[in-house]
Task: structure prediction
Amino acid sequence: NGNTLTIEEGVVVKMQSGRSIILMNGNIIIGNASSTSPVVFTSEKDDTHGGDTNSDGDATTPAVGDWKKIQASSSNSQITVNNAVFRYGGFSSAVFELLSGAQATIASTTIEYSNSNGIAMRNGETSLTLASSTISNVYDAIGISFQANANITNSTFTNNRRGIAIDTDADVDN
Result:
């Protein structure tokens, strides 16, 4: 507890196939609200951000679910995201997965091209604040279940199966 990973504005993170970031205890801070240069999380196959870092020319192209997720999995876990783009994640899970009391604040962010949900919340007392963000081309923009709480403002969900999927015991504001 007390550990923090900070990813500064303008950084491009290329995730390899099947990879995740799992936060058990501590904080992850991605981006800066006042920045004009977003943080980008994308597939290693995505040459549009950060160039051809896997050095294969046009031999591969990114696809939904190329990488797994960013997961916070305890009440001692906090994710804070400002001004970021997340593309091609969500292999067999959401791009962001909040479990067991984890908390997330996501603002001015785009989540797109997921094989699953943009954000999934479950397993009790989990909370999300989402503001001024876009979730598109995913299965469900947000999946909420099992005593999870969400506060969503000024955000757009497009080209998804559903905008918000609410399961049992969810408490959703706004």
The mean pLDDT is 91. The radius of gyration is 15 Å.
